[in-house]
Write a structure and sequence with these properties.
- The protein is α+β, with helices and mostly antiparallel strands and about 220 residues long.
- The chain has one domain (about 5-225): 4'-phosphopantetheinyl transferase domain (Ribosomal Protein L22, Chain A, Alpha-Beta Complex).
- It is built from five helices and eleven strands, in the order E-H-H-H-E-E-E-E-E-H-H-E-E-E-E-E.
- Bound molecules: coenzyme A.
- The site of coenzyme A has 20 residues, from strand 3, strand 4, strand 6 and helix 5.
- Coenzyme A (COA) binds near residues 158 and 162.
């Protein structure tokens, strides 16, 4: 049976309503950021979406973190406290934030700004040698779209596993930019997840691309929150 992933995006803004629903820890983190607005928008979006889905006060939600690499509770993938079976993932750029929520399966979401994919050495740092061919003779805007799409797929997978960029993304192979999203190969020494599915997410801003992954073999159905 397909697994439903609920997704919502938001444009980054300076809304005081967003800051008002954050917890003390989030406000302290926001205060330490060089640019607080993307962080505040993203974390307020998490609270609003989860609050609506669970019918709870967004400002009263509590979160915990656990690092899949070292076991610390000070960093790593966040989870909602007192909500067994509910999983979420957050990603944000300077301009936009996205949240994905799933029930019963770990989920990872990633959004990429095309301009962030515009750097020398992209292929070297993110792609396996045999993935480079999938980019063919793309250049200009088309190349940035292709890079952002593939990068979002890889990071969504790594965020679903909770390991993040501890795993070298060039050792996690995904389908080429013109193909439907799927994990193609796992060459990292860290264990491959037993089950994983991947899907692109259509975002409303043309200068971003996003993807979602979940630890399941079932097909993903991405639905707006
Ligand atoms: C997770 C990670 C890929 C996010 O990269 P990014 O592109 O900069 O940021 P995104 O906007 O896409 O996602 C950020 C959000 O991902 C979530 N996140 C953080 N760590 C995560 C992890 N290990 N797995 C899944 N999600 C994670 C958080 O909600 C975070 O938001 P916050 O920092 O405001 O709380 C990157 O920060 C990473 O690899 N972290 C792990 C590093 C690590 O574990 N090191 C070993 C320490 S022992």
């Amino acid at each position: 049976m397909p697994v439903r992933i609920t997704v919502r995006e938001a444009g980054v803004s300076d809304s005081p309503d967003d800051l008002a629903i954050l917890g003390a820890g989030e406000r302290a983190r926001a205060g330490r950021k060089r640019e607080a607005a993307p962080f505040v928008t993203g974390h307020a979006l998490v609270r609003r979406v989860l609050g609506e889905l669970l019918d709870r006060d967004p400002a009263a939600l509590e979160f915990a973190r656990r690092c899949a690499t070292c076991g610390s509770d000070q960093h790593g993938k966040p989870s909602l406290v007192n909500a067994p079976g509910w999983h979420f993932s957050l990603s944000y750029t300077g301009a936009g934030a996205i949240v994905a929520v799933a029930q019963g399966v770990e989920v990872g979401v990633d959004i990429e700004d095309l301009t962030d994919a515009d750097f020398e050495g992209f292929a070297r740092t993110t792609l396996a040698a045999d993935e480079v061919a999938g980019f063919g003779s793309l250049d200009g805007h088309d190349l940035l779209v292709a890079r952002a799409r593939v990068w979002a797929r890889k990071e969504a997978v790594l965020k679903a596993t909770g390991r993040g960029l501890v795993v070298d993304p060039s050792e996690v192979l995904v389908s080429g930019p013109g193909e439907p999203a799927r994990l193609v190969d796992w060459r990292a020494e860290e264990p491959r997840p037993a089950q994983i599915s991947l899907a692109d997410v259509d975002v409303t801003t043309d200068d971003h691309r996003a993807a979602v992954a979940a630890l399941t073999d079932e097909q993903l159905v991405v639905e707006p929150a």
